[in-house]
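Notes from hallway chat w/ T.B., transcribed later so I don't forget. T.B. wanted the structure written out for a chain they're using in a teaching module, and asked if we could keep both sequence and structure tokens in one place. Agreed to drop them here.
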Amino acid sequence: MERLTAKQNEKIKHAVSVRDSARVRREEGLFFLEGARLCRDAAVNNVRIFRAFVTESAMEKYADYADAVLSAAEEGYIVSSDVAEKLSDTRSTQGIFCLCRVQDNTADIQQINPKGKYIFLENVQDPSNLGAVCRTAEAIGVDGMIICGGCDIYNPKALRASMGSALRLPIMTCADAVSFIEELNTTDMLTLASTPDSGAVPVTEIDMAAGVVCVVGNEGNGVTDATMSACKHRVTIPMLGRAESLNASTAAAILIWEMMRK
């Protein structure tokens, strides 16, 4: 297996560019993973690993993880500790990194289960929020997540916050929230737009026994007016305290729970 010891190696520089740039990820169809568990999750969940980079110490300390990753990778490299520090986006690296191939996840109405439950994120900017919602969605058991605008799901911080859920949960992306909501409205699915407006219907009073898509909006501005108008109902989370709104990931968690509880 080839050893890479120079930080300026072209393969290392390329990996860093994928890690740091949404544009590069989009143009090259690649994303970056760091960490023994996250990289192993990619390997065992049939994510196509293009290149794997592993330190010698990681091969000893995380032998099972490293073996799974290197076996699944198209190309595998041993890297020095200096190179690992260059690749790392964390405070203390475990020494296992991957470049993975992005699968086509363009939203298609044919992929939606009309009896399923979906959380729809519109323009969510914080990668930690995005990853947290993904983790909650998988844990509670929704059928999938739809993303329009905002942060890239393949942002390294979002992937870490998801704790591997982003590699397992069905995730779709769409370019136009209104058009996709309007398509959903032609089915028997219930489309809901969440809002802190107390004049909206309390989410606890909505019948969500059938298929549901619930939209959570941007951290500062919420769901856009156009998307709000396209949805069949506006819903709100009843609050007794003095806070005007909830964090996006917290709101999404409550809405997901209500969808699945009913």
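Follow-up for T.B.: The mean pLDDT is 94. Might be a good example for the class.
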